[in-house]
Amino acid sequence: MSSGEGGKACLANLPSPLEELHDERLVPHGVHLRLKRDDLVDPEIPGNKWRKLRYNLQAARQEGFSRLLTFGGAFSNHIRATAAAGHRFGFETIGVIRGEEHHPLNDSLAAAVERGMTLTYLDRATYRRKTEPEVLAALEHRFGACYVLPEGGSNGLAVRGTAELVGELPADFDVICCATGTGGTLAGIAAGLPGPRHALGFAVLKGGEFLADEVRRLQQEAYGVATANWSVETGFHFGGYAKHTSALDSFIADFDERHGITPDRVYEAKMLYGLFARIEAGDFARGTRIIAVLS
Question: Which terminus of the chain is more solvent-facing, meaning fewer CB atoms within 10 Å of its CB: N or C?
Fold first, then answer.
């Protein structure tokens, strides 16, 4: 659907597939694992990014904005996806990047520029104040009126979008896992869960303890109430956002060899590594049925 059709942007490849994962490492623990392949929704706008953006794009159109402004680090998948969505649905895009400008651009920022995004940079001290009126006013003075998307795209509308993933799942699972950067995907999935099921987020950045407060805040923004059916695992960040170790690199290579899937190093690889480690540690009872979201 084009951006002009009632302001209702959409992608064709939903719902995303659910795939059984046959892995001999799971057998001794009696755990059943499937992958929700949101990474296959669109090559430029992966599933959880699309779910976060969808209702924000509609709101921007309905409120008369033609320009999106958002924030992220130099390796932000959200920056890249926002640029692609803006290009596809007829919005100008501004990416406010944390830290100093570096050339040549990395793959993520280069892809954003190729999709028409204008990049600007804030020093780290100013970036920490990015939500303050003074900083936002300066950006609006420079670029004009913008629909502002928060870092990672996580707000109440994003939570409502990510909650829709649960409606694409069968009823026969106990735990659903996702990588967690800003808390929006976890907040939405947990809010959408029926019954006694549990959502488990794996923090991809160091010091992720703050995410618990963020998940609650986002659920309150979206629905006026926070749920208690989720938790955040903070022990598998591998040094921080976009950082990695030889152990993580080896896990990615092995997973690709076993299953023909190369999990994203920044997000999904950390989640899967942590999930397998917790399974190995016996943290899940025999018979537990797990869904892991790739996005």
Answer: N
Q: Is the pLDDT of residue 3 over 50?
A: no
Per-residue pLDDT of 151-199, as tens digits, reads 999 999 999 999 999 999 999 999 999 999 999 999 999 999 999 999 9
- 81 vs 54: CA distance, rounded Å: 11
Q: In this structure, are residues 203 and 233 in contact, taking their beta carbons and an 8 Å threshold?
A: yes
pLDDT for 206-252, tens place per residue? Answer: 999 999 999 999 999 999 999 999 999 999 999 998 899 999 999 99
Fold of the CATH domain 18-44+155-294: Rossmann fold (3.40.50)
Provide the β-strand partners of residue 292. Answer: 35, 177
pTM of the model: 0.91
What pLDDT sits at residue 1? 35
* CATH code for the structural domain at 47-153: 3.40.50.1100
Give me Rg for the CA atoms of the chain.
Answer: 19
Residue 98, phi then psi, degrees to nearest 5: -70, 130
Cite the residue boundaries of each domain of the chain with CATH code 3.40.50.1100.
18-44+155-294, 47-153
Peptide bond into 263 cis (omega under 30): no
Strand partners, 92: 67
Residue 227: strand, helix, or coil: coil
Contact 150, 131 (CB under 8 A): yes
